[in-house]
Amino acid sequence: MIPGIADPIRFILDFAVLFAVYSILSISLNLEYGYTGIPNFGKVLFFAGGAFVVGSLTARLAMPLAGISFNPEKFCTENVKLTYMVSQFFAANPHIAIALFLLLILLAVGVSALLGYLASYPAIRLREDYLGITLLAAGELVRIIARNYEPIVCGTLGISVPNPFAWLSGRTQDLMYIAVMFTAAIGIWIYTERLSRSPYGRMLRALRDNELAAEALGKCGVSIRMQTLVLGSAMAGLAGALYAYYTGAVYADDYVPIRTFLVWVMVIIGGAGNNSGAALGALIYVFMDRMIGQYKYYVPVPFDINYLSYIILGVVLIAMLMYRPGGILPEKPSKTIDFEKIAARFRKNLSAREA
Amino acid sequence: MIRPDMLVDAVIFSNLLALMSIGLALTYMTLKVPNFAHGDFVALGAYASYSLFALAGLNAYLGLPLAFLVSGGVALLLYVAVFKPLNKRGASIVAMMIASIALEVILRSAMHIYADIMTTATPPDIFFRGFIVPEPFALQLGSIRLSGLLIGSSLLVAGLVLGLHFALSKTRFGVAMRAAIENPSLASTLGVNVSLVYAVSWFLAGGLAGIAGALLPIKLPCSPETGWDFLLRIFAASILGGFESIYGAVLGGYIIGFAEVLGAYLLAQPPLCLSTAYRPAIPFIILIATLLIAPRGLTSVNWREVVQRLGIRSSLRVRRESL
């Protein structure tokens, strides 16, 4: 195995789960930017939306069901203990654990979709730059509110998330996590792929390539962009909820704008307008991130090596934009019948009629 | 109650914001792309002048030319090495915005690395994160002590607006600059060197942000994240001012500056008692309100028409009431 890794199975597990979460994010950004051309610079907002719903509500909803009494004033300082008690309750009642898990995932998706609508509403009718600035600002604002307003995720203390699979033991639990994450990621991938090949997907690309022409054919640019943003935000909310469950804790300061940048790096490097490209970008990034996390203490430099990795990613991103704007796997032409075939059939019909 | 020292703070803060917003307007005018790395020019200026102050023990105001050159030089480099080639290759607005975000991350990370290295290389009593600089001089008028920064920054903004107004309307280069901004292809057929004009715009924009950054540590503790923290305010001020006007940028800077300093104080008072940590929400709310009511900024609003409409309505109301 790779040297320096104490627990290879844990390493692979972390890798797989992070890859699943990031590929949901990069595919949702690909839907927004790659297919529709929306500059969503507030991706972290919708990711955080899902995570905050799961973080703030899981324990609070489960405690009355479990009959755990608590003092709401002290919820934040005691939440690690309370969360542990809820996890014990989940271990004894799998059906409630699963029902709450599914309910909260749905709620997280809904809240993120709503955030997508609200955050884009002021600027969706304006030029792309205004929309980008507004989304970026909204993402930063929500983090500031979450960090300072304790009732959401306990401010700077952070909040623990009960383990929804506490009723499984050891490795089975890990396998369950992987199964859930990959089901979600593959589901999103298939959905986006089918969507992009449907008439709706062609309409999105038409809007991206020439908005005026698409509007002349009766497609409303504003409402389509809004729908796409809401859909992409809902997917990001799903990723955020799964991430919160897996990491077992939600800290407001974990949802910094650099995450938005990383998702953009994945999409641009992998290939905008191509779901496989977006997933490949996520794979490349997660691999790099895990390697740095594993080996950063072996490299003797007087600064945090993560900053160096951001610089490298930034340079690679700009180089890609200049020399290979399509990414590693560029967008493919849409799968329609070959023009020659159509022309041949047309000619045949024409000659048959003449004869 | 609002005390005079709060007004002094508000004026200084507004002056610095105006300096930053003028720079953003200068770069936005050229390529019509909002530069997300503009905040980092501010932080770069702060680091350049602070390094001179902390390592050589010079007066903080002596760092201003260095800050101007460093930030301006970096801005010029970004234009020549990134934005100009991207523009030539026909990159979309969104692609150039992504590039500017990447540059923002690169500059911020580079400053983090610089701060890390300097912290280990210098004695522990010199800080490279969260540093401040003492006020270099103050005016004593009888019993009133006037902050030197108040006078200096106000003179700087006033001189700059007058100077830019003169340069853009009276000099050959200024007229060429306006022509190149208005219609690049027509200007270049008439012999204007458009890319030189744009390069000067970028250098000036970075330099002004650098000067604002060099003055910032006198008022606020600075760190590599300072640029990012100021970015939202700069955008709010610029959009409020109409994004493409120098006077609009000053106006926007003043409105945001006063709203933030006085608003944060008023929100912390008894009826609401909010933490000052919510201060960044104030420019955001102004930004949203601008986008909803007058998305092209205050300078685009036809005030005469607004007044006329309001006037007609009020006169109608008067007539109805008299009937």
Report on this structure:
The complex is a heterodimer of chains A (355) and B (323). Chain A is an all-alpha fold and 355 residues long. Chain A has one domain. Helix content of chain A is 73%, strand content 1%. Chain A is built from 14 helices and 2 strands, in the order ααααααβααααβαααα. A two-stranded antiparallel ribbon of chain A has the order 1-2. In chain A, α7 crosses α8. The longest helix of chain A is centred in the N-terminal third of the chain and has 28 residues, at 8-35. With 323 residues, chain B is mostly helical. Chain B has a single domain (4-322), classed as ABC transporter involved in vitamin B12 uptake, BtuC, CATH 1.10.3470. Chain B has helices at 4-31, 38-56, 64-88, 93-121, 148-170, 172-182, 184-189, 194-215, 226-241, 246-267, 281-293, 303-322; strands at residues 138-141, 144-147. In chain B, strands 1-2 form a two-stranded antiparallel ribbon. In chain B, α1 (4-31) packs across α9 (226-241), α1 (4-31) runs antiparallel to α10 (246-267) and α9 (226-241) runs parallel beside α11 (281-293).
Helix and strand topology:
The complex is a heterodimer of chains A (355) and B (323).
Chain A: H1 8-35, H2 43-66, H3 79-92, H4 94-120, H5 128-148, H6 150-153, E1 159-160, H7 170-197, H8 199-209, H9 211-216, H10 221-247, E2 249-250, H11 258-270, H12 275-295, H13 305-323, H14 339-354
Antiparallel strand pairs in A: 1-2
Helix pairs in contact in A: 1-7, 1-10, 1-11, 1-12, 2-3, 2-4, 2-5, 2-10, 3-4, 4-10, 7-8, 7-10, 11-12, 11-13
Chain B: H1 4-31, H2 38-56, H3 64-88, H4 93-121, E1 138-141, E2 144-147, H5 148-170, H6 172-182, H7 184-189, H8 194-215, H9 226-241, H10 246-267, H11 281-293, H12 303-322
Antiparallel strand pairs in B: 1-2
